[in-house]
Amino acid sequence: xxxxxxxxxxxxxxxxxxxxxxxxxxxxxxxxxxxxxxxxxxxxxxxxxxxxxxxxxxxxxxxxxxxxxxxxxxxxxxxxxxxxxxxxxxxxxxxxxxxxxxxxxxxxxxxxxxxxxxxxxxxxxxxxxxxxxxxxx
Length: 137
Prior knowledge:
Strand content: under 5%
Order of helices and strands: HHHHHHH
Largest sheet: none
Structural class: mainly alpha
Distance between the termini: 48 Å
Helix content: 55-70%
Radius of gyration: 18 Å
Number of strands: 0
């Protein structure tokens, strides 16, 4: 897969996996600060929203491999690249997918959500109605 993927896609996936890892470490640090202060806030809410979804898995994976060896970085990048390819394949095969659901808070790490923004924003409910209103005016 790495040998056949466009270099731009591979670079984008690598950058995103680095962003996901940094987001997970930052989230854990913010959670620890809130816990130490005895005041649960935004970080605790973010962690709670994602703990059973892909965002939570990213946090667990990050904590499991604190050093993040190059082989794991490469594997994480390839897994994300594969996931992106599958989303694009499903998008071609199943018209009208509800991609906007991927924007649900806590479902995915924010860097992954940003990477999928072209799919997510494609069919946001109400976007078509808004476009119809703008076109009619």
